[in-house]
Amino acid sequence: MNARSELPGLIDHSKTTNGYIGQSTPRTGAKKLLQGRGTYLDDLRLPRLAHVVFFRSPHAHARIKSLKLDRARQQAGVIAVFNGQDIAAFCTPWVGVLGHLKGIKSAPQHAVAVDRVCWQGEAVAAVVAESRRQAEDALESIEADWELLPVVSDMRQALEGKTLVHPDLGDNICFHRELKTEGFDAAWAAADVVVEKTYRFGRHTGVCNEPRAILADYNPADHSLTVYHATQAPNMMQDIFSRHLDIPESNIRVICKDVGGSFGIKVHVYADEMATAALSVMLRRPVKFQADRAESFLTDIHAREHEATIRLACKRNGEILAFDLEDLTAIGPYSVYPRTSGIEGNQVVNLTGGPYRHQQYRAKLDVVFTNKNVTCQYRAVGHPIAVALTEGIVDEAARVLGMDPAALRRINLIPDDHYPYSFPSGIKFEKLSHHQSLDRLLALMNYQDLRAEQASLLEKGVYRGIGLAAMIEVTNPSPAFYGVGGARISAQDGATLRLDPAGMVQVLVSVTEQGQGTEAVFTQIAATAVGVSIDKVRVITGDTAVTPYGGGTWASRGAGIGGEAVLQAGKALRSNILDIAAAILQQDKASLDVRDNAVVSKLSGELKLELAELGRVAYFRPDTLPMGFQSELTVTRHYTPREYGFTFTNGIQASYVEVDIDTGFVKLLKHWCVEDCGTVINPMLVDEQIRGGIVQGIGGAMLEECLYTEDAQLLNGSLADYLVPMSAEMPDIVVDHVQTPTRSSELGAKGAGEAGTAGAPAAVMNAINDALASLGANVSTQPFTPERVLQALGKVA
Amino acid sequence: MKAPSFAYEKVANLEEALQRLHEHGDAARVLAGGQSLLPALNLRLTHPQWLIDIAGLDALRGERLRHEVLELGALTTHRELASSALVRKHLPLLAMAVPYVAHAAIRNRGTIGGSLALADPAAEYPAVALACEASMLLRSVRGERKVKARDYFQGLYQTALESDEILCAVEFPVARSSERFAFEELARRHGDYAMAGLAARAQFDAQHRLERLHLAFFALGDRPMLAPQATACLVDQTINPQSIRDAQQALGADLSPPDDLQAKAATKLHWAKVLLGRVLSSLASHQGA
Amino acid sequence: MSDPIERLHVSGSVHVSESGHAFNAVRGEQKMPVRLQVNGERIEREVLVRQHLVDFLREDLGLTGSHLGCEHGVCGACSVLVDGELVRGCLMLAVQAQGKQVQTIEALSDSGELAILQQAFLEHNAMQCGFCTPGMLLTARALMQEVHAPSRERIREYISGNYCRCTGYQAIVDAIETAIKRRHALEALHALGQQKVSNTGEPEGASV
After folding, report:
1. What total number of domains does chain A contain?
2. In this predicted structure, what is the pLDDT of residue B152?
3. Which residue in the set C124, C125, C165 is minimally distant from A261, CB to CB?
4. Region C31-106: CATH code
5. Are residues B147 and B215 in the same domain?
6. pLDDT tops 60 at residue A650
């Protein structure tokens, strides 16, 4: 761990007595959640609130021959029933493409389908009623006549293109990318050993505890729209509502109440949510859409359906020369707006091989349309695939070479003093700590002892496995992620800090909160930066009329980007406070400081002026201040990362499992993660974020899959049949940190929210395969169900 | 999802309940604990016109120990079963099964009658009833009848219950001191419906040979299944590696599990064999009750 | 018995009755008067018979602390107490609560019954988005009533019917362990206090 003095330009703690950075202070702002006194979107009541439920296509691909809505309109409580054309008059369609993904293409998508439906669950009509139950009743009165169209459900068939999802597009390829480094062929020829494997990843989804929710409230008097939205990116939504509903941007106010989990699911534009906003405009009253669990499974974005072949070329001594990747991934019928569904595959190409110092790389990616549900960015976007491919094939190589997996990694991880570093896929690393992290991990898990335990238990017929997964993770993205492609998605964020008259500090930040604790982190930073105690700080996020303009929460950017804005604003506020104090006290500003809610003598610490008193004077008695002096107790600062396109972090995980070779069941005994996310502002929050991410990754690796028929019908759209991780099967998870702060900000914080999910599937897979290795068995298709383990063992066909 | 409309009546006594079912037949559903009915209603998987709430029928509560038989009222909750001294003492196989049923909140309201009336193929109690040769007490306006478990479970969610009948109680023969029991199930997560399960009841003679054996498999067919061929391999034998292997082999003729979302038929049959081996070993070591 | 309730395979048509069930022929919505106690208050309302208990609490009484995560009894976010027993509020009709006492997270918080658990949750950061938290707290309370000194494994088993997507469950297990230790310590102190009373015949401090 770096010594405090090495941290660049950090607040000199010898000057303040209340530095909260690095402390595990509890989230006092979350007390209301403990009492059931949060306000989630479905808790809101407005006068004349109407509820919308959507009539959804039962078919994966069909033309709407006729749609009879009259009987539905007559049902009890029904206010209106609309079809796609009705809503298209108020909400324009969109296409999910961006300029920097060369050649990406998609078809226009409407809020409610017009003419043709492209996936089972796509909305075809909207029923608005006084209550949700009445709207659902009315659905049963809608008569639809369909002309079934050919369905594309298999990714290979989609790639072949005999049947097209969108005939106008000519093929089913949303996005294709190839890259090859100059020395690739030579490196491949120089290899002593080549290992190859094909891995499959089952499509799965986020399953936020609170399903998607939106309440739109249009005011015809001033052509303004207030949208209460369980979204991660309120300013982005503000822009999108504005452009597609033709309402001036600043007439739109997006407010985020408490959000019950997001994980990327709630950062995208959903057709039924756009429809809800349009309905409010059409009906001139508030309209709420609260998805239920069934709709959630059917229409929340899915992710991670890949079939990838990876090859690794190395020397006999273990030195990796090159990776060769071919990735095929199936998305839905539309590239999701506005971030596109090409990004996940693009990340797989960017990140495969990430921790290692090979120089040569070749990759090919095809992202294909199918008639299953739409897919898009979901926590750790692409990383779980890239890390599993990389770490899986590295372990394969270790087996072939007869080397210990940790030793093979040791040879190939980028050395800790080789930075800044340019990686073959084009990404750049500022400074990582792979070796330090590996050291820490092996010590933490008592690696040698575990290996000994594994060996002795094997003699007794007990099959245990240890799996490692080294990783890099994208955090704190600059406009390189979306902005450069033309998306109106902000990569900068702002914080406004205000000292209130009674001495408390109000903090308004454009980064949002869905439970990860961003508000708590900002409380700590603000308190530290200004010089107040933590109980004097209040944070407000998620209101576009109130908070600064910014990007919101995604790609693990909250602490790193929002936090830096808070830090800078806090420092500026502290300086302004001292200006006023100097004026009041008639003392040199340089001799003063702010500590513990008061202005003090910098040298002696003697109390000079309580902040509450300073506030009283500044706000109510400026007549007592020198002529020409204006107090400025509200300060705003914005921040965007400039030097690096992405601030990469690194980490390494380990999984210890026991496989029951008779039943195929895998017991997760323990899990470890060493994560370097730079300055850790609140270890307790970061650690449980990592654990939550790991469990979510384990879900995808072991349990979760959206199962479809050949006709692209979802088979398991309920929590009874789609298995999410529950507490009894999850291991205890040990988390530790190395801290390599980024120099691109004073705070030095990188992101941490997705790291757990990025590495967990790889670690678990490698552990299972380590356990099965002595039996010559190997699993490569996620989720690793007991059946797949038995198939690998040859015990069932 | 919100439940569709239905009419609701809470009946004061059994006669009223039976009268309603007689009037409404298929259009009515009995509401007891509601732990299976309400999910189906909320998901709009079922559209009954009438809900007849029988929660107030004290006649369907309680335990009655008579001679060789323990009768459990249909409205006995899982929780009551778990804490019942009589069940622990006289129905050890049932006591073994209760902890596998869902979670605490559901055990507080769900009932044994509800479980047996629904007869989910992956549920625990139907298999226990089959293994123990329990009898269901059914009543209608036409009278009362007793149906043995092997005749009661007829198909996928199909039981002998007519649309105008209510399951009032289940009668279990009490365990003999010489009997041994074992229960095992495989599920991905604690509390889930089983992917494969086995409830077993055995009687050994003085030479440790099996005099009687009831193997009731669940989650491996459309209803709980006895395994006559596997059983035949074991009767009059001791439990030893060979007899276990023979029985496992024969199981292929007894069970034809369907494919389901979790596993294909071949995998389920494999699990059945593994469970059989484990249960037989457990019985042999007299670990079971 | 005909018309079996299908397993919870929500396949194909979510809102369209492809399965052939006719729209319910019962005209109009049946309502019933219901008298019950909610959080110590006497409540009398006309309720829709098809309305489940949590919808009644949320919609009719404005008690939004109990949440809906699935409405088919799997996630546990809807947990409430009925006559002191832990129950899934989405699996109970409001009319079934006739004559009963219902308690929600709000009242259990205000009464202080959950204070030890809530403090432990706060210290261990056992809640993130908070959606599962009321259900998790009520379940933890039920565990503490039912099992005196549960192992970590037993704790995990007991709360395994409550879905959390944010934490890794570990902080929740840690918090429950801490709460149990503190409860035991308080009980020990209390017992000590009682002992002192009975020894000396005079009440001495230590009332908790």
Report:
1. 3
2. 98
3. C165
4. 3.10.20.30
5. no
6. yes
Contact B33, B114 (CB under 8 A): yes
Asked if A787's CB is within 8 angstroms of B264's CB, the reply is: yes
Q: Please, what is the Cα angle at A603 between A598 and A609, to 5 degrees?
A: 20
Of A550-554, A649-653, B244-248, least confident by mean pLDDT is A550-554
pLDDT in tens, A507-539: 999 999 999 999 999 999 999 999 999 999 999
Chain A residues within 8 Å of chain B (Cβ atoms): 132-133, 136-137, 140, 292-294, 662-665, 703, 707, 715-716, 718, 720-721, 723, 726, 728-729, 785-787, 790, 795-797
Instruction: Please indicate, yes or no, whether residues B62 and B166 belong to a single structural domain of this protein.
Output: yes
For residue B218, give the 3-state DSSP assignment. strand
CA-to-CA distance for A697 and A757, rounded, in angstroms?
4
pLDDT at C5 exceeding the cut of 70 = no
Q: Give chain A's mean pLDDT.
A: 95
Give the domain range for residue B166: 58-173
Residue A26 DSSP one-character state: -
What's the gap between Cα A603 and its chain centre?
A: 45
**What is the pLDDT at residue A17?**
40
Per-residue pLDDT reduced to its tens digit, C43-96: 999 999 999 999 999 999 999 999 999 999 999 999 999 999 999 999 999 999
Residue the block writes with tokens 């408390």: A504
- Helix C133-146 with C170-200: angle, nearest 10 deg: 40
Task: State both tokens at A282.
Answer: 């059409």
Whether this model's ipTM surpasses 0.90 comes out as yes
- pLDDT for the residue B44: 96
Per-residue pLDDT of C135-191, as tens digits, reads: 999 999 999 999 999 999 999 999 999 999 999 999 999 999 999 999 999 999 999
Over residues A295-316, mean pLDDT: 98
Name the residue of chain A whose CA is nearest to C168's CA: A692
Q: Does the beta-carbon distance from B26 to C26 stay under 8 Å?
A: no
CB atoms B6 and C73 under 8 Å: no
Which phi-psi region, left, alpha or beta, contains residue B28 (left: φ > 0; alpha: ψ -120 to 50)?
beta
> Are residues C65 and A120, on separate chains, in Cβ contact within 8 Å?
no
Residues A559 and A574 in one domain: yes
Q: CB of B103 within 8 Å of any CB in chain A?
A: no
Structural domain contains residue B1: no
Amino acid at A207: V
Asked if residue A323 and residue A256 are part of one domain, the reply reads no
Answer whether A306's CB lies under 8 Å from A200's CB: yes
pTM here is 0.95
Backbone angles phi, psi at A563, to 5 degrees: -60, -40
Q: How many Å apart are CA A793 and CA A781, to the nearest integer?
A: 14
How many other C-beta atoms lie within 10 A of the C-beta of residue A422?
Answer: 10
Residue A184 vs residues A51, A365, A411, A426: alpha-carbon distances, Å: 58, 17, 20, 14
With 0-12 / 13-18 / 19 or more C-beta atoms within 10 angstroms meaning exposed / middle / buried, residue A588 is: exposed
C101-113 pLDDT per residue, tens = 999 999 999 999 9
Per the CB < 8 Å rule, is B38 touching C55? no
Taking an 8 Å cut-off on Cβ atoms, the answer to whether C156 and A728 are in contact is yes
Please, which pLDDT band fits residue A626 given cuts at 50, 70 and 90? very high
Where does chain C have alpha helices with state H? 53-55, 105-110, 115-124, 133-146, 152-158, 170-200
